[in-house]
From TrEMBL:
This is Inorganic polyphosphate kinase. It comes from Streptomyces justiciae.
Length: 296
């Protein structure tokens, strides 16, 4: 007998909950904010809307289906099953946070606070969930992801972008090149390298792209093409600035060889879940074979 589908509700602790947890009580948190000219009711209202959205989504799950919940901070310890339908309730970034832990499960993004989120990935309202669960396996958009693979087999996936550089805003030193480019590499010192997807083109990647004069065409979310940029490359007798931007097709790879004591690679802003790279290690970045299956 096959198992009934399981809905995994993904959410994150609200700003209000974090503030109260830090200060101990609602009153102490309110006093702290008021001393800085802020009103806690703004956060409390958003908290109530988020909880109401979670309750409405929970009520829409068929009674014969199984349910589970996972908070953003626990994603790296949660085991997703092949039959899961993942329902993300929150912001666009929360969909990106969960994408790297999946293996083809459909994802339904639900906007918990319409008007505050762009709605690129959380496309739906809580009232639509009941109908969408019935078609979640069929009506999906397959979004391109990016991966970084180190020479010691460490692997990192991301939906928006992968950043490679030094922790703590220090200068990153490395050698950069493209696979199949005749072995040409350039020694660089910079603020790091950003490699992004078409989904990431609505965020950090787009801001860098705009600063560079938009000479490269931004990829679409489902397009098997990435853009990469070196941030603030520094010219010196030992480091160059000629290899600072480009695109990667499905089979192309950008190779970075570490020439610092420690560099990191992290995806979608989750620096706490990063690859650790040391002197002499190399990492290759390119289009990932896995895709995020987002319910349209």
């Amino acid at each position: 007998m096959s198992l009934a589908p399981r809905v995994v509700l993904v959410h994150r602790t609200t700003e209000y909950e974090e503030l109260v947890a830090h200060h101990g009580t609602h009153g102490q948190a309110a006093f702290f904010l008021s001393s800085r000219g802020r009103d806690i009711e703004e956060l409390a209202d958003r908290h109530r809307r988020t909880r109401a959205a979670l309750a409405e989504v929970t009520a829409a799950i068929p009674l014969t289906w199984r349910q589970s919940r996972v908070e953003r901070a626990d994603l790296d310890r949660f085991l997703f099953a092949p039959e899961d339908v993942v329902v993300v309730v929150g912001q666009d970034g929360l969909v990106a946070n969960v994408a790297k832990y999946l293996a083809g499960q459909p994802v339904l993004g639900v906007d918990s606070d319409p008007g505050r989120n762009p709605g690129v990935l959380v496309r739906h309202r809580p009232s639509e969930v009941a109908g969408l669960l019935a078609v979640a396996e069929r009506e999906v958009d397959e979004l391109t992801m990016v991966e970084a693979v180190a020479d010691d087999t460490q692997r990192l996936l991301a939906l928006n972008e992968i950043y490679l550089g030094a922790a703590g805003h220090q200068t990153a030193r490395y050698r950069l090149g493209l696979d199949g480019d005749g072995g040409a590499v350039e020694a660089q010192a910079s603020s790091g390298v950003l490699v992004g997807t078409g989904t990431g083109a609505t965020g950090w990647l787009r801001s860098v792209w705009r600063e560079r004069g938009a000479e490269l065409r931004l990829p679409g979310p489902a397009e098997e093409r990435l853009l990469w940029f070196v941030r603030e490359a520094w010219p010196s007798p030992a480091t160059g600035t000629s290899l600072v931007a480009g695109e990667l097709t499905a089979s192309a790879r950008l190779r970075l060889t570490v020439e610092s004591e420690r560099l990191i690679a992290f995806g979608d802003g989750m620096e706490g879940d990063a690859l650790e790279l040391t002197w002499g290690q190399s990492v290759r970045v390119g289009v990932c074979r896995e895709r995020l299956r987002l319910v349209g």
